[in-house]
Write a structure and sequence with these properties.
There is one protein chain. The chain is an alpha/beta fold. Helix content is about 45%, strand content about 25%. The protein is built from nine helices and nine strands. The chain has helices spanning about 15-30, 35-45, 45-60, 80-85, 100-110, 150-160, 180-200, 205-215, 220-230; strands at about 5-10, 15, 65-70, 90-95, 120-125, 135-140, 160-175, 235-240, 245-250. It has a seven-stranded mixed beta sheet, sandwiched between helices. It has a two-stranded antiparallel ribbon with strand order 1-2. Helix 5 links the parallel strand 4 (about 90-95) and strand 5. Helix 2 (about 35-45) packs antiparallel against helix 7 (about 180-200), helix 3 crosses helix 4 (about 80-85) and helix 7 runs antiparallel to helix 8.
């Protein structure tokens, strides 16, 4: 239980730790129905390529071997659907998300793509996952961990639910490392994305938060240290698109 004096960031604002999850839920409740469209618009479609790299790195088995993926904060199912299409008959994914509106979008998409027999959806909190120890062969989280109030707890939970020899993969916005691109990226982020969000979803403030949350997320080396502290080994990361995103990985040995 969080102490009353504990705070964390919600974008550029400091808020009581216990309030952040409610505020984040309100953001995704507001944008759920247009979430995937906004991802396309904000990234000029690049989020699809980044997720393809994530699934290629995951490398699910192509044969009938059983393989269980836990996709956390993956409400609309994008990563799980890609992994299911790249794998064999033994693949099953569980999408776990705290937001029921995002999960409903995902279930509808799974049915439309005839993947509802291979991808299931469960409401749950990344900090206290509703799954037994050592039950999954891989854990993925794409553009979701920066919204978790206590990232260290989420990483420990990831370690807990993975079998020995399993892999943790986290795709998240990162720190632009190309001179000149950083200024353009800031201008696009703070001036264009909130206006775009307002036009498409009717909610500019939610996208202002999402932009601010990217700037508050730890730099790649600091986040890698957090992954190691949770018990993962062979931790590394791969920067993409000039540092706009990074794919972090670690192994549960």
């Amino acid at each position: 239980m969080a102490r009353p004096d504990q705070t964390t960031h919600f974008g550029f604002r400091d808020v009581p730790l216990g309030d952040k999850q409610t505020l984040v839920n309100e953001v995704f409740h507001s944008v759920a129905s247009r979430y995937d469209l906004m991802n396309d618009l904000m990234s000029a479609g690049l989020h699809r390529a980044w997720k393809e790299v994530m699934v290629t790195t995951l490398n699910p088995p192509k044969d009938d071997a059983p393989f269980r993926l836990l996709d956390v904060a993956g409400g609309t199912g994008d990563v799980s659907f890609r992994a299911a299409k790249a794998s064999g008959a033994g693949f099953r994914a569980t999408v776990c998300d705290i937001n029921v509106d995002m999960l409903e979008v995902g279930r509808n998409r799974a049915a439309a793509q005839h993947l509802d027999d291979r991808v299931s959806f469960v409401e749950g909190n990344a900090e206290t996952l509703p799954f037994p120890d050592r039950g999954f062969d891989a854990y993925t989280i794409a553009f979701g961990i920066r919204n978790v109030p206590r990232i260290d707890l989420a990483l420990k939970e990831a370690h807990r639910v993975l079998r020995p020899g399993s892999r943790f993969l986290c795709l998240e916005f990162s720190t632009v490392d190309v001179p000149g691109l950083d200024r353009l990226y800031d201008m696009f982020s703070f001036r264009v994305i909130p206006q775009l969000g307002g036009a498409v979803t009717g909610d500019a403030e939610s996208y202002r938060y999402l932009v601010e949350s990217i700037r508050k997320f730890p730099k790649p080396n600091a986040f890698a240290d957090m992954i190691r502290a949770a018990g993962f080994a062979r931790v590394k990361w791969q920067s993409m698109s000039g540092g706009i995103v990074a794919l972090h990985s670690g192994w549960r040995l």
